Amino acid sequence: MAVSQIEWSLWRSFLAVADTGSLSAAARRLSLTQPTIGRHIEQLELAVGRRLFLRSQQGYLVTEDAAALLQEARAMALTAESLQRRASSSSNDARGVVRLAASHVVGTEILPRLLAPLLETHPGLELELALSNSNADLLRHEADLAVRMARPTQSNLLARRIGIAHVGLYARKDYLDRHGRPRDMADLAGHCLIGPDQDAVSLGFLERLDTALSRRSLRLRCDSEAAQLAALRAGLGIGVCQARIAEQDPGLEPVLPEAFSLPMECWIVTHDDLRHVRRIRLVLDHLGELLPNWL
Fold it and tell me: Is pTM, for the whole model, over 0.85?
């Protein structure tokens, strides 16, 4: 079998095994049998002429050769998924799949309540939420739409500025009752601070606001904004939160609102080629109407 003739099903199995680390888990993901996945891997290794996985007690580990192929295989998967979404209905049909990218906290705290009436009105519409703290690449078809908290820089994108999300420091009232309310930024040193772990963008953002807010000053570190919010609500300490989200929780209280306040632009973005697809336009216009009121 020549490399150019490798069937897509083999690459799908390759990605599933690479992601899950086992034949059985990959089989469950793809609704296939374990022997079928095993045959796919054997056929793919034969076609490319090299070992793609090391079999160990920890499962299937990708080889160096396999790691070099993963990025292109993932790009193929994204293109195939985009093709499936576009083929699921005509451009004038409100039915079909729309993939919407957003951060974890936007996708868990804001979008569900805003999208509920849209799905109620259009029963043939299907939504996929792609939640990540990194910006989805719309030009590579990782998503059809994206809600971003920064101005897009890519070309060939249709971007609509929705408004301003205000970000500040918050903590549970009972935490502040126990540990005291900071009077200035220097007082934060005596508190349990919650923030990012390895995310260079978020860490740099904190340090620009105040040099005292370095990674070492954070006692609870996690790159998931949703997990940081959960820690705030559990009363673990003081952390960053969007003001509108914090207002929904009567147990949260702003900390040093005059000293620590940051406005962040909110944008809805899609590829220029998709703006006339009706189901995508429905989601775009729906969020464009409701998100400004939320903010």
Answer: no
